[in-house]
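User: Good morning. I'm curious how adenosine-5'-diphosphate would be positioned relative to this chain. Could you predict the structure with it bound?
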Amino acid sequence: MNILVINSGSSSIKYQYFKKGETTPIVKGIIERVGMEGAILSHTKKGLDKLKKVLPVENHKKGIEIILDMLEDKKYGALKSLSEIKAVGHRVVHGGEAFSGSVLIDDDVIKALEDCTELAPLHNPPNLLGINAIRELLPGIPNVAVFDTAFHSTLPKHAYIYAIPYKYYEKYKIRRYGFHGTSHDYVSTEGAKMLGTTRDKLKIVTCHLGNGSSIAAVDRGKSVDTSLGFGTMCGIPMGTRAGDIDPAIVPFLMEKEGFSATEMRDILYKKSGLLGISEISSDMRDIEKKAMEGDEKAALSLKIFAYYVKKYIGMYAAVMNGLDLVIFTAGIGENGWEMREMILSDMEFLGIKLDRSRNRFRGEQKIITTEDSRVKVAVVPTNEELMIARDTEKIVKNRRGGDE
Ligand code: ADP
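Assistant: Good morning! Here's the predicted structure, ligand included:
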């Protein structure tokens, strides 16, 4: 089935178009700076040089129009008529408690997504703008929502309820939701295949380490715990986000510095993590470079990052009462072999024996432990768009009773 995948964020819209039966998109691209001066379209078609264009994109609907025009472009496009698109899959960040899997979008789903907006005020509104634009511009074509939170809907209650007064769960739905679900789902499936089995037989810890990072315990195919929670600031320290900190720090700093709630959130979301500690950058490559040059804070931020990931792997092995496979993915997980080495050193007691020479690569799908390592570690490049395309196809086929 020909599927268009749309990831509509606050200031960018990413897209990929998959032709029936293919696992790599024939065209893909991104529009950045939507709604701002100097919006940029970057578009790639298999076999051609990347196209870059600065053009006015006043809102998300205009952005989607431009994407649809590109798909029909004689040179850079992939179809003669938009009617060749059989379904559109949309990344949606927050499905709240209402959605435990991908769904065909109808008016009731739109309403439920609007109800989730309070839980993801930065993400769900632009996701909805993308969905509404496609519904308007491609009427009659089925749309599917694929949620970042859905894979974690299997968390047991004791893992998702926070130890604060229970009434706040009842009143505001404050609980652990977890994010990056599509990525954890995809890499745990692929990682199991690499071991010649299926994930329902394995206890897996998946480490999605990018600008935003999260770790998940995937016990025989089900997510049973994950490091992101109600929001996207907790767990391991990220590019600019704090990760787990003592909650006592929050009121202390607010009182000492006179910060408002918004200012405090900005500090924890935009000024902490690798950037906050290193005072250099949020980007792992910059920090590694500075650390090599002898910068102490850069080196410290790397150590803290590695330490938290190690702690979570240990914690989740305990949670699952065992561990067969650890998977690294996303920008740092796929490319940062130096960081993988820092994390995986001295883990023999858990059954992990890193093969240092096998580990020295970037961006490939490979096992990096020794032959006799009881627990295997794999690097699996994530592919959220393919996962969204697969889910979309599944949902649409089910609806039609499998006619495609
Ligand atoms: P996002 O969460 O924005 O999707 P990515 O998954 O693209 O983020 O990850 C971005 C992170 O990956 C950055 O910290 C970047 O420095 C890191 N990264 C990318 N390439 C490398 C590399 N070759 N070595 C180390 N880190 C890398």
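The first strand starts at residue 3 and ends at 8. The mean pLDDT is 96.
Let me know if you'd like a different ligand tried.
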